[in-house]
Specification:
2 copies of one chain form a homodimer.
Chain A: H1 14-21, E1 28-32, E2 38-39, E3 45-46, E4 49-56, E5 66-70, E6 96-97, E7 102-103, E8 108-112, H2 143-156, E9 162-168, H3 170-181, E10 186-192, H4 200-215, H5 224-227, H6 232-246, H7 249-255, H8 275-290, H9 293-305, E11 326-332, H10 340-352, E12 357-362, H11 376-393
Helix pairs in contact in A: 2-3, 4-6, 4-9, 6-8
Amino acid sequence: MAASGAAPAETPTVEAVARGEADRPHSAVVRFGADTPLRLDAGGVLTSFQVAYQTYGMLNAARSNAILICHALSGDQHAANVNPVTGKPGWWETLIGPGKPIDTGRFFVICSNVLGGCMGTTGPSSTAPGGRPYGLELPVVTIRDMVRAQAMLVDHLGIEKLLAVVGGSMGGMQVLQWAASYPERVFAAFPMASAARHSAQNIGLHEVGRQAIMADPDWRGGRYLEEGTSPRRGLAVARMAAHITYMSEASLHRKFGRRLQEREDRTFSFDADFQVESYLRHQGEAFVDRFDANSYLYVTRAMDYFDLAADYGGVLANAFKGTRTRFCVVSFTSDWLFPTSGSRAIVHALNAAGAPVSFAEIESDKGHDAFLLEEPELFAITRGFLDSAARTLGVS
Amino acid sequence: MAASGAAPAETPTVEAVARGEADRPHSAVVRFGADTPLRLDAGGVLTSFQVAYQTYGMLNAARSNAILICHALSGDQHAANVNPVTGKPGWWETLIGPGKPIDTGRFFVICSNVLGGCMGTTGPSSTAPGGRPYGLELPVVTIRDMVRAQAMLVDHLGIEKLLAVVGGSMGGMQVLQWAASYPERVFAAFPMASAARHSAQNIGLHEVGRQAIMADPDWRGGRYLEEGTSPRRGLAVARMAAHITYMSEASLHRKFGRRLQEREDRTFSFDADFQVESYLRHQGEAFVDRFDANSYLYVTRAMDYFDLAADYGGVLANAFKGTRTRFCVVSFTSDWLFPTSGSRAIVHALNAAGAPVSFAEIESDKGHDAFLLEEPELFAITRGFLDSAARTLGVS
């Protein structure tokens, strides 16, 4: 009743909460030790690392109803629960939940933070065995390394075969890598808004973001966590640049046009006169609170290095040779970051490999982000594809 | 013959040469004083400013063969001569010269540095009346202000009416502004790869560049010239980001693909493994040597503010009401920065205004930069349009 004498607990900042996730996340964690080393494409081995993950729904007795969700560059394992850092809904709650296209009343859904991330799976902001954060001493990781770590998690959960692996953008790259590396463990694969290799344009866009981060003197050669600084401005610029690429000209025009931000007329200054400027600045700042700058370097680099055909003699079809996995490939008409041509190349390779594949280019003006948004056609396709897979496997 | 005792003169750096251009350029300069003030859209007046310009060819006795060239964001007045800063050919030597589509054997060609620029026309790096560089104390300028200054230059040269005004990208914006502000002074107008207003996407892209510059601590609130610093890293990031938008995915793929830069395999690091990274880093660094960071802020802002219809009751056709100027409008299929839809909007407005206009969408995979490159169809159209205008005016 009366005011207590104790000082009120200070609410930690979003940034502070995010920092805490690296080693002690608000998620289930599985730790791997020297007995289960992770061999990396860069050479070398991780002998002590962890994977943070969320699950939704129940694994059935036959262990046949598991669906693995792979997240994109700026995503995390909180696909269908409130994000503990931002307090916002999970990034794929449009698609995942009871009665939704990825129906958690029926399926056991798993989503783990990628290797190199900052939400509890080992990444550059994790504490290294020596007691300091890894920083750039963590070896550069690849999409294949991420998938290897996920396979170890799936082993740990006692699941031999996944009903489906599903993901968009970088998540789609992981889906393709799963189908190539572990064909017998993937019954159905669903890459959307993705590609089997990162394009020159996209490598260039990533390089701009990395240079923005590394140009920030507060980056301190990657040692900012120990030095108590934060390359906020560089990371914000990287995010602003990237955010434009996730939308389409049409969606930016519809959302903002040339409307001014809470003012009657131009100020003839470098203030954020236009709503689109104000929006992008906000996107940059919000991202900095929740995402680690070095993780941004690592995860973009993993995407740059992704070129599935290169591991199979330069012929993408060879990555899927003899596969019995069924595929569904989706692209969006206004996605200029991962255009339909990239999805078509996947479909052609699957056709050449004789794999069953359906393909849809969905009409949308929402750009690359369409896969995260309300897209009824995507929902219908996802539901249909997973229903059919479940029926075939006898999952009720 | 024998070595002289004097120390050899040091070759000044490209950056030092560029700095010298702001006040004392390697170009003709016309100075305007208090008797010819320049009223700015931002309010206020410039009572002392200068315009630096180049001319090519000879003005005929009737003064009827003058063509004004308007340059783009990163351009300057050195359209058809060796650039005194970089030592490279002029940026439009593809199009301008003896016997070329803009034939300097026949036409008197004028190109001036824009207001807000850094190559001799008054801009933020120019010395203000108080003796210090303007920095951000120069009022923000608009495309219309740039055109007002150009009109004063054209007056100074004793030219009443221009045979043609020609420009691409931001140069095309100036062409449209000329046609709207001074219809009786423009016989033929040729905007290419341009738009009558800057789109939300393009404002966003500019804002990223500005934030990159202003995030650089060496920017010093715009006072870097006096403080002896230079926001090189910020400006380089801005240029890298912009450079990607000037190309197309196809041209980046053709030029670089996923080829590695002078190495056999990926280094698994954040080095510039890929040629496209190395190229972009080089573009960023080369730009910083020749361009002023504050000018980048001013000139991008002028483009953002450009919305020709807004000055005419929101109806673009009204900007051209009753005009007798003839127009040629050109766009390029792979230009996603200034897509054909923007050129079409200009053409529709000209149609509505009853103005004579021809329009060509040129098939090219070179992106926005196509207007600066070897494009035979563009050359043929330019030659044809200018020939016809010259013939009509009796210019031999």
